[in-house]
């Protein structure tokens, strides 16, 4: 079954924003009104720096096999964006430590599972296929971050009013760039000869590892932010399972990835990209 690509390619732009992270306080963090999602986003921030570097390594391992000059240019832009993401989240995580939200042990667990065990040991046992599987995991993770970015940027203003303004600027910028480069790793995977089985196996691994780390990280983060009261729990349930609901968006788009003819550009995000490109460019960082 062939692919039906509905969205034109968008070349990723490398931006180097400077955020006033020193103004983020423990009391605000990612927002107190929806503590479970606050804790979830906090746990993801801890995973981003080393995760982004893994993505860069996985994609660049195949860049010499790509003949398409447009895609080769996109690989460079993808690596540039991801490098900046890693640096910004490094600094954000340092700020977390400064205000008493020390997630460094969670980061160590992530690195141990993802890099020491998976990348440096298991994948090394299969020099050729392991490199391709690493790329398929990257493509799957990029699909997840694009899904998360699409969900957040599609929320009406009243739904994000609970988020600390500085943090929301980081979310806008990061989510925008995830949508801009959402197809790069996937296209490198396909053009370098990647097949369907390894593609879905990569998604299955990504879901298991990221799901485990997100759950553990969210629970640990709740100890810092404080467990929600009944009113907050109701608000959380509505946010996760209402309309639009984060849970339904994630489940739908993860399942969509298993469709034989899937391509990231099947989902047209051009309107969101155009809107937030303007917002990000006009924001004072």
From TrEMBL:
Keywords associated with the record: Hydrolase, Membrane, Transmembrane, Transmembrane helix
Spans through the membrane: 200-227, 239-260
Superkingdom: Bacteria
Cleavable signal peptide: none
Molecular function per GO: hydrolase activity
Name this protein carries in UniProt: Metal-dependent hydrolase
Organism of provenance: Leptospira langatensis
């Amino acid at each position: 079954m062939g692919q039906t690509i509905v969205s034109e390619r968008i070349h990723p732009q490398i931006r180097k924003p400077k955020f006033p992270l020193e103004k983020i306080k423990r009391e605000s963090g990612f927002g107190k009104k929806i503590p479970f999602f606050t804790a979830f986003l906090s746990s993801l921030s801890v995973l981003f720096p080393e995760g982004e570097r893994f993505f860069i390594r996985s994609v660049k391992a195949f860049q010499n096999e790509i003949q398409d000059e447009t895609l080769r240019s996109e690989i460079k832009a993808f690596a540039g964006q991801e490098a900046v993401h890693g640096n910004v989240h490094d600094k954000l995580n340092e700020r977390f430590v400064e205000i008493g939200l020390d997630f460094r042990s969670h980061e160590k667990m992530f690195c141990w599972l993802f890099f020491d065990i998976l990348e440096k040991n298991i994948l090394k046992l299969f020099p050729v296929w392991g490199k391709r599987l690493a790329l398929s995991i990257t493509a799957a993770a990029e699909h997840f971050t694009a899904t998360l970015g699409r969900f957040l940027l599609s929320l009406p203003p009243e739904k994000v009013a609970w988020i600390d303004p500085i943090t929301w600027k980081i979310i806008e910028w990061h989510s925008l760039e995830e949508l801009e480069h959402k197809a790069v790793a996937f296209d490198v995977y396909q053009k370098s000869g990647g097949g369907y089985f390894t593609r879905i196996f990569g998604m299955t691994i990504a879901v298991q590892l990221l799901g485990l780390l997100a759950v553990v990280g969210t629970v640990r983060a709740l100890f810092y932010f404080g467990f929600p009261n009944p009113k907050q729990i109701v608000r959380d349930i509505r946010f996760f399972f209402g309309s639009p609901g984060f849970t339904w968006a994630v489940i739908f788009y993860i399942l969509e990835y298993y469709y034989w003819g899937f391509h990231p550009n099947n989902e047209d995000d051009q309107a969101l990209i155009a809107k937030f490109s303007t917002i990000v460019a006009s924001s004072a960082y």
